[in-house]
Design goal:
about 775 residues; mainly beta; Immunoglobulin-like; Jelly Rolls; 6 domains
């Protein structure tokens, strides 16, 4: 279902079923967790806010390390959960969804801190009387503010001591953006440092400074526009921990020990040796640590399959390019360390080889807006790229001849600095496919998780981004809950979307977990698959979201039984190009459920359209979905499903039919309508020339359609051997005069006892002329004279 169709579907569902009374709640809306973080190695109570939460059973955390011990005080708008954060839980961001007996809520964030969690003290009613809250260094404070409020926290520091602070604001505020600004002042009010945005934490402030003197330092946090939305919640970490803004190099080879240098910290650069994982990964978190204190959020690096080349200055032109004695594939690493800086690297390549050149900078939170160029061994530029779907550059380059080549990296605006790190990976193109569930409604997370009612079916669309692979894919799913199975059609090479059906057995346990999609080539070709599910945690209208999370797994819940099931009567006959078809949908209702059910086609194969939302009327058990095929509909056998929804009054309840085959075939016949005319009140003959394309058995029916008002023609029949059909056309005296160009024919061919409808001969013309006042062969009327 495309986005606009789904929007209409959602509105229709809401309008039709707002008054439906169903003993089944819908999926919950999950707003946020308060407080938004906790210290690892502790147990704590959190409040989960939203709506339709009265049947809450817990939370689905995507990562290990956080366990839900109990749920209490459930209401429609909130519930409390007692959680246990393990001592080895990863520091930083964790993602979770609220789980109820009837659904799965939106994805929200929760942050694990290494430091003691301090709750904000109660504020006085008069803001002028508010004193800064005293906190110890190496604490995480959970607070909230609204409107023009300014929250202040004060710490004691010694001269020469490094003091760092981070805010988690935007990442905790899902609906209205809390764009905070953090200001540090000395006891006399002198400003020490201030931060609004940063490349490391985007719209959340981060800073570090060396205390210029012994004394008290006040940290003031407020909304940068002085208009914090609603009740904005936040976390602020304040301590002596290191807070570098960048790491170099920003990647390494899997399985190796890598020595990295952290950059941008107030105390200066420092090094750390780390063990990289044995598996390549897009983003690997590094937590800087010094003197027993660790940063509460990571710097991120790449882990790849190939070795590093580090820049050696000077390398500001092709003649002084940093050379490599290693063969490709390689990763070139450097820093655009000052304004106007440009870095060159030299490599050897053979004729005919083809490589992807990919820059990793902005996606690893570097401020660099890269420009990538490739040169021959004489300094002639062969290719260049600025942006490629993001501010990181990308090129595919086919080597024209054996020899040395150079690549260069610089900033698009000529900027530079000690944290402008980058990595250029040069590797052969490899077949990859990344899967995700698409956004059904803009700026929402509607149906981005799977909720399967017990003993029922649920359907979703699965999309794929292909890189260097164009074959058919057999879809799989792993780590599904007990009692849940998945079926999917083959994702054919020509498309990037496939419908997927989940079935839950009658005895499946109500609950939730995470799972992953995978796939394999139907021709056993090598292909690497993964899940890359982008979720807009903080949307921004039609613009780039304020905050987005990309996950490598998806959430699934088994819910209580739904009040109805759906089944499609699988069509025995195909749909022809330029034809139409009606799908019959059967509803099996619970005895106490009489309400209407909205129906819509989940997935339309190329060239197939549907009539939008249809309805199984109140108390009825049958409905229909109409399909139409264009002349360019792709001739193949596809699999389709129809989804149904009702609004329980506390959210939508979704179920699906089974997957069914839909075969698209070429037209049986084409035709052309011969132009003709008719007088008002008169008769004529319209001839349709037939061009037989696909033989069929028996007789086909053909009807002349699009005739003007009060012009009629009886339906005819023809066989596969006929070359024309003649229609006897009768015009009424009041039929509208003029040229009527909307004529066409509807052909009905029977197969397997089912009709196959096809439209042909579009654009036929019939001219209706005004009736003649008098005709030559008719004598004028003679009235009898009176005697």
């Amino acid at each position: 279902m495309n986005r606009s169709a789904f929007n209409v579907f959602r509105l229709v569902v809401g309008a039709l079923f707002a008054s439906a009374v169903i003993g089944h709640a819908g999926s919950p809306l999950f707003s946020r967790i308060v407080p938004g973080g906790g210290q690892r190695g502790t147990e704590m109570e959190i409040t989960c806010e939203g709506s339709h939460l009265e049947d809450a059973t817990g939370l689905i955390f995507y990562d290990r390390g956080i366990e839900v011990l109990s749920v209490s005080e459930t209401t429609p708008n909130r519930f409390k959960a007692k959680i246990k954060i393990s001592p080895d839980a990863e520091i930083g961001e964790h993602i979770a969804r609220a789980l109820t007996a009837t659904g799965v809520g939106e994805l929200r964030t929760f942050f694990v801190t290494p430091y003691r969690l301090v709750m904000q003290t109660e504020k006085p009613k008069d803001p002028a009387k508010a004193e800064p809250q005293a906190v110890e260094l190496n604490s995480t404070i959970a607070g909230h503010l609204q409107g023009e409020e300014v929250d202040r926290y004060v710490v004691d520091a010694k001269k020469g001591q490094r003091i760092s602070a981070e805010v988690v604001g935007v990442r905790l505020q899902p609906r209205d953006v809390f764009d905070s600004i953090l200001t540090v002042t000395k006891a006399d009010g002198t400003k020490v440092i201030e931060c609004d945005d940063s490349s490391l934490l985007l719209q959340d402030p981060v800073l570090s400074f060396i205390a210029p003197e012994d004394g008290k330092y006040t940290f003031a946090i407020k909304d940068s526009t002085n208009a914090a939305p609603g009740l904005a919640t936040y976390l602020i970490h304040i301590g002596t921990f290191p807070r570098p803004l960048a790491v170099y190099p920003v990647g390494g080879q899997k399985g190796e020990k890598l020595k990295v240098t952290f950059l941008g910290d107030a105390a200066g650069p420092f090094t750390q040796e780390i063990q990289l994982p044995d598996k390549a990964t897009e983003k690997h978190p590094l937590f800087p640590e010094q003197n027993g204190a660790v940063a509460p959020s990571p710097n991120e690096i790449r882990v790849s399959d190939f070795p590093n080349v580090l820049e050696v200055e000077p390398n500001n032109d092709w003649k002084t390019a940093t050379p490599s004695n290693l063969p490709l594939p390689l990763a070139f690493n450097g820093v655009i360390s000052e304004k106007g800086d440009i870095d060159f690297f030299k490599f050897y390549a053979k004729k005919g080889e083809e490589y992807d050149f990919t820059v990793y900078a902005r996606r690893l939170r570097s401020p660099l807006d890269s420009v990538l160029s490739i040169y021959d061994g004489k300094g002639n530029r062969l290719a260049s790229n600025d942006d490629s779907g993001s501010q990181d550059s990308y090129l595919r380059f086919k080597v024209p001849a054996d020899g040395d080549y150079e690549l260069s990296v610089t900033d698009q605006l000529g900027h530079g600095g000690p944290t402008y790190t980058y990595r250029v990976e040069v590797a052969p193109a490899k077949p990859e496919v990344a899967f995700w569930v698409p956004t059904m409604i803009p700026n929402t997370q509607e149906r981005m998780s799977v909720v399967v009612p017990k003993g029922n079916r649920y359907a979703t669309l699965l999309k794929a981004k292909r890189e260097n692979f164009a074959g058919d894919l057999a879809i799989m799913a792993s780590q599904l809950p007990p009692g849940v199975t998945m079926t999917a059609g083959i994702m054919q090479a020509a498309v990037d979307t496939v419908p997927v059906i989940f079935d839950a057995s009658d005895d499946a346990k109500v609950g939730g977990s995470t799972f992953v999609f995978g796939a394999k080539s139907t021709e056993n070709k090598p292909v690497e698959t993964s899940v890359a599910q982008a979720v807009d945690v903080v949307a921004n209208g039609n613009q780039k979201p304020f905050y987005q999370v990309i996950t490598d797994k998806l959430a699934i819940g088994v819910s209580q039984e739904a009040p109805f099931k759906l089944r499609m009567v699988e069509p025995k006959a195909p749909i022809a190009q330029s034809g139409s078809m009606t799908l019959k949908i059967i509803a099996e209702r619970k005895p106490d459920f009489k309400g209407p059910i909205a129906l819509s086609l989940l997935y339309a194969p190329p060239g197939i359209g549907s009539g939008g939302t249809s309805v199984i009327k109140e108390g009825e058990t049958e409905g229909a979905v109409t399909l139409s095929a264009t002349t360019a509909a792709t001739i193949k056998k596809w699999q389709i499903a129809v989804v149904g929804s009702v609004d329980s009054g506390t959210g939508n309840v979704w179920v699906s039919t089974q997957l069914a085959d839909l075969e698209i075939v070429p037209p049986f016949v084409e035709g052309k309508i011969a132009r003709t005319f008719v007088d008002q009140g008169d008769k004529t003959t319209i001839t349709v020339k037939l061009d037989q394309k696909t033989p069929f058995e028996g007789k086909a029916k053909i009807a002349l359609m699009g005739l003007p008002n009060k012009v009629t023609a009886e339906e005819k029949e023809f066989t596969k051997d006929d070359t024309e059909v003649k229609f006897d056309v009768q015009a009424d005296k009041t039929s509208p005069a003029g040229r009527h160009a909307g004529l066409f024919c509807q052909v009905t061919v029977m197969k397997e006892g089912e009709p196959i409808l096809q439209s042909i001969a579009q654009g036929g013309v019939l001219r209706v002329d005004p009736a003649t006042v008098a005709k030559a062969d008719v004598k004028p009327e003679v009235k009898e004279e009176k005697k």
